[in-house]
Design a protein that fits this description.
alpha/beta, homodimer, 16% strand, Aspartate Aminotransferase, domain 1, Aspartate Aminotransferase, domain 2, 2 domains, 3-stranded antiparallel β-sheet
Chain lengths: 374, 374
């Protein structure tokens, strides 16, 4: 009977409306029925991304679509700018290097956003693409993608944004801001299980695609677009996940993108207020609304805290990744999360910290969160 | 209230036991709970493939794992042998060429299996890998992988087998036969929705992996193995699909691989007998037990036949792909299919053909099938 609460920044809680359709009998994908569903999904993703650009959908997790944005835009030896301010920004650098690109990596102290001026400084005629992260999931940092896009749009380079965890939580207006490739995934703000990823592709980006000499097949933009234009996919799609995605995209449309952005901004503010009220410090210097990274207070063991939360209270937070392991924990406020979920999270955090001997006034975190939420 | 019957060679019918677990609340993948599940899946896949080799699992459809077997084994300019006897054999050639391999393609008349002696003739010191298909889904042909493996094992080349649709239907003993890389998918004999694919990798294949210079990241064998050794994945796995896969792997183990092979052999024999009894001709000269390709009889329009079956009777067969469109239809007998399903398929086929004016004795196909099945 124990209830489980998932606050990890992916996978996020899947709404029952989406869970239940995955349990329905499967159907074949080369059918009108599937094409109608897929067209609705393509339209829904365009709505979410605020774009009229092509949206290409892959059966993979987010990293597959990140790789697609490298393999389809570049040729070996091409110069790119990447930003290493956390595990996922670092990943873009790793992928680019794996594909033989010449990587100019902006190394940041983790927890800090990239300074758009630094990108401007490094941009040159030779730079083919700039790879940045909207929400750096590993640090809870939101980068100023709008400012970066304004800079990159004036250059010959294309801008690729990993919006996997930030999408719908911090604003991202693909067309208005001139984002050439936005990469998204299914298991974050879109609230379905992992296994579907996508890219939007601007005209400027298609220019690079057509001259790219990198090898690719499964993630090929051209074959995927050719099929997408007929509401189809070149390879077997993840039918059940798409079915769930149709449901959550309907929910997103029904709530409205702007309203969701306001909601998640408020939820994240409540998490920040709640944790501050019990003396905890944020890790991020530019906090994302998707996930809040909190420093583990002195004297508390991160593993013990997370295990206690999960095993005794049924509450899953995420720990730190890579060099942040043991130093932070992360509370997600994206997707199928509401005000009461944030109070539950704060309350569980208080219970666990109290049990581990951390000194604070019980209830102070929940109260501060509630003040923001009311 | 209309019942739906799916006889397409992927996705295949998903058993309720697997459907229902996909509707359960999702859980996080970096947990003991997930690792235990994933270890059971890795063990189950080894059982299915009859191997002790590493098995690497990807969140992708089958083509992703086919690409992995190219990107991880080869370097640009490497010489390979591929077999183009249908859409999927052809695909191996396309992927190899996309990656800059030098492809010696054995072009077959579609519907015919590859002659192992032809592979032997073309093998040389320079050939790095031979790519063949167990069941060529597009033509219903089963290739003699055992004989091919015996030949390739004596050479320096590695053998890669696309077993995506053939697995569990026609025998494939990875270790006993010396198959270096076997590629599998989730939505065929393994009975779950599309979105999970896998490769087994022999020691001989690892030798090539370690000298491969092809770019790769998402499908990287080394990082995937490093994680798999800890029952983990380098990137977010398709949690709900894996959950379903655990259920179907348990079913497969409980039935027993040998028993399933016998069952599908019998079911396919029944389809062949049933279609022959009403005067239909097989397309394949070496029929697979996974899927039976039948020539559309003269005077009958394939599209009309398939639509009538699907829209009026709720019965989905697959049509022909690429150059076989309009010329054949395909009935799958893999996965969650039993004797009664075959009788249903035969009966529906008879109803539809009768309605379209094809001349035959009604009931003759069902009777012939039943004789085989009894």
């Amino acid at each position: 009977m124990r209830k489980e609460y998932l606050y990890s920044p992916g996978p996020t809680t899947v709404p029952p409306e989406a869970l239940s359709v995955m349990g329905k009998p499967i159907f074949h994908h080369r059918t009108k029925r599937h094409r109608e569903m897929f067209q609705e999904i393509l339209d829904g993703l365009k709505y979410v991304l605020a774009t009229q650009n092509d949206v290409l959908v892959f059966a993979s997790s987010g990293t597959g679509a990140m790789e697609a944005s490298v393999a389809n835009l570049l040729s070996s030896g091409d110069r790119v700018i990447t930003v290493s301010g956390g595990k996922f920004g670092q990943r873009f650098g790793e992928i680019c290097r794996a594909y033989g690109a010449e990587v100019d990596e902006i190394a940041l102290e983790w927890g800090h956003p990239v300074d758009p001026a630094e990108i401007e400084k490094r941009l040159s005629e030779e730079v083919k693409a700039v790879y940045v992260t909207l929400c750096e999931t590993s640090t809870g940092v939101n980068n100023d993608v709008r400012a970066i896009a304004g800079i990159v749009a004036k250059s010959r380079a294309v801008l690729v944004v990993d919006a996997i965890s930030g999408l719908l939580c911090n604003d991202l207006l693909v067309d208005e801001w001139n984002i050439d490739v936005a990469v998204g995934g299914s298991q974050k703000g879109l609230m379905i299980p992992p296994g579907v990823a996508f890219c939007s592709v601007s005209e400027k980006a298609w220019g690079l695609v057509n001259s790219s000499k990198m090898p690719k097949y499964y993630f090929d933009f051209n074959s995927t677009k050719k099929s997408a234009d007929k509401a189809d996919t070149p390879f077997t799609p993840a039918v059940t996940l798409l079915r769930a995605l149709r449901e959550t995209l309907r929910m997103v449309r029904s709530e409205g993108r702007e309203n969701l952005l306001r909601l998640y901004a408020k939820l994240a503010r409540a998490v920040r207020a709640g944790t501050a009220a019990i003396g905890l410090e944020l890790f991020s210097h530019a906090p994302s609304n998707a996930v809040t990274a909190v420093k583990v207070p002195e004297g508390i063991d991160a593993g013990e805290l997370l295990n206690l939360l999960r095993d005794e209270l049924g509450v899953t937070f995420a720990g730190g990744q890579a060099k942040l392991k043991g130093k932070i924990f992360r509370i997600c406020s994206m997707g199928y999360t509401n005000e009461f979920d944030i109070l539950t999270a704060m309350s569980a955090l208080e219970f666990a910290l109290k049990k581990l001997g951390y000194q604070f006034e019980i209830g102070a975190g929940v109260k501060a969160a509630q003040e923001v939420l009311s």
